[in-house]
Amino acid sequence: MAFRDLLYGAYGRRLEKSLDSAALPRHVGIMVDGNRRWAKAFGETSAHGHRAGADRVVEFMGWCADEGIEVVTLYLLSTDNLRRPAEELAPLIEIVEDCVARVAAARRWRVHPVGALDLLPAETAGRLRRLQEETADIRTGLVNVAIGYGGRQEIADAVRSLLREHAARGTSMEELADVVTVDHIADHLYTKGQPDPDLVIRTSGEQRLSGFLLWQSAHSEFYFCEVLWPDFRKVDFLRALRSYAARERRYGA
């Protein structure tokens, strides 16, 4: 085991040196998938897998900081996850809370919760808002923590916010219909003012978005990795960056 780790370490350092910093993504979205399957393979509970996944998230954020990634969006808890049985959901929410707190404690990332916080327990929503306030002064990096998040819900919320804004101005529906653009909607997304994700990574072998950043990922590059999230290593991340850097981005063309 130690020898294999030594080989991977040497390979990772060589791979890291080969990356062109100018070709790396500014914004990386990561779908941390496979915690439950990882735990099941060891005969453990889902909570055990989620804890291992949370540890990996903290490590991953360190890797992103090392590579100079400016913005990271972590898909930690979807609106679909909120339908899970209470005995599974309660520890999951607690683990996610602790995970975000650990990322915030590193003082390298400004925390920005994205999602329908009103769907979460009041204590959880309050803690996330406090972590956002406590890290508001950090300018080295921004992490969007997608908790209680759904891409369709985000778009619906953006349109609702846009309508309310124009209603307050006295704009009629006919007038709004004549002038509304995609930029107007984008200005009301949870990630307003941020660059769209350049690279979206999903672990566990699944090859679908599952509602993640539906609007923002229109021109993103995607990287699907077979590794379950708790087993995701820095070398896997570096491979994703290498793959991204080698692509010719066409932005939908």
Automatic annotation (TrEMBL):
Catalytic residues (positions): 33, 81
UniProt keywords, alphabetically: Magnesium, Metal-binding, Transferase
Superkingdom field: Bacteria
Note describing how the cofactor binds: Binds 2 magnesium ions per subunit.
PROSITE patterns given in the database record: UPP_SYNTHASE (PS01066)
SUPFAM superfamilies reported in the protein's UniProt record: Undecaprenyl diphosphate synthase
Residues given in the record as substrate binding sites: 34-38, 50, 78-80, 84, 202, 208-210
Annotated Pfam families: Prenyltransf (PF01255)
GO molecular function, one term: transferase activity
Cofactors demanded by this protein: Mg(2+)
Enzyme class at the top of the EC tree: transferase
Record-listed Mg(2+) binding positions: 33, 221
EC number: 2.5.1.-
Quaternary structure and partners: Homodimer.
Protein family according to the UniProt entry: Belongs to the UPP synthase family. Z-FPP synthase subfamily.
Functional description taken from the UniProt entry: Catalyzes the condensation of isopentenyl diphosphate (IPP) with allylic pyrophosphates generating different type of terpenoids.
Protein's name according to its UniProt entry: Isoprenyl transferase
Organism field: Kineococcus gynurae
